[in-house]
Design a protein that fits this description.
By secondary structure, the protein is α/β, with parallel strands linked by helices. It has 4 helices and 11 strands. The protein has 2 domains: 31 residues; 152 residues, L,D-transpeptidase catalytic domain-like (Beta Barrel), CATH 2.40.440.
């Protein structure tokens, strides 16, 4: 959605009866979320097969937070590399988890600590094209963290989230089809 059409949508919603309560939520959904509030100059790179020698077994997901890349290990010393958005300063994490669940068009319930920081957030957003979780989500163990899509592709490649890993909707849909529940995820 272009900035102009976002402004038109916001203007229309603000003029609609009863829209005052929607202001904060709409600001959250449509505001730039990059490190300095600016979108990257180019869209994230498309997934590509790359040489990736590792001792990890095929099907393992490796997330390199510094490079902002997610690698899905394949047989024969290769991996599929995807661009990924990571946690902003103070919200990043490292460790090993497993994929505990997979959801298409997941619902979103912002955790209590996120709602404490952002009281304008709703308690619940149903799954669908307007949901900030995007088209697919891969749940990481029993944590609150996920690898998920984003309806704001300009945030992919940034350090902008509260700890989750954001991908474009097309990339997360591709990863979703390739990954099984129980797959190892290592974040470094």
């Amino acid at each position: 959605m272009t900035d102009l059409s976002r402004r038109m949508l916001l203007a229309g919603l603000l003029l609609a009866p009863g829209a005052a309560g929607a202001q904060g939520y709409l600001d959250f959904l449509y505001a730039p979320m990059g490190g300095q509030g600016a979108a990257p100059a180019e869209p994230p790179p498309a997934p590509q097969r790359v040489p990736y020698p590792t001792t990890e077994p095929p099907g393992t997901i490796l997330i390199d937070t510094a490079a902002r890349r997610l690698f899905l290990v394949e047989p024969g010393g290769t991996a599929i590399a995807y661009a990924v958005g990571v946690g902003r300063e103070g919200f990043g994490w490292f460790g090993t988890e497993t994929i505990s669940a997979k959801r298409e068009w997941p619902d979103w319930r912002p955790p209590a600590d996120m709602r404490a920081r952002r009281p304008d957030l709703p308690a619940f957003v149903p799954g669908g094209p307007d949901n900030p979780m995007g088209a697919r989500a891969l749940y990481l163990g029993q944590t609150l963290y996920r690898i998920h899509g984003s309806n704001e592709p300009e945030t992919v490649g940034d350090a902008a989230s509260s700890g989750c890993f954001r991908m474009t909707n097309s990339d997360v849909a591709d990863l979703y089809e390739r990954v099984r529940i129980g797959a190892k995820v290592r974040v470094f």
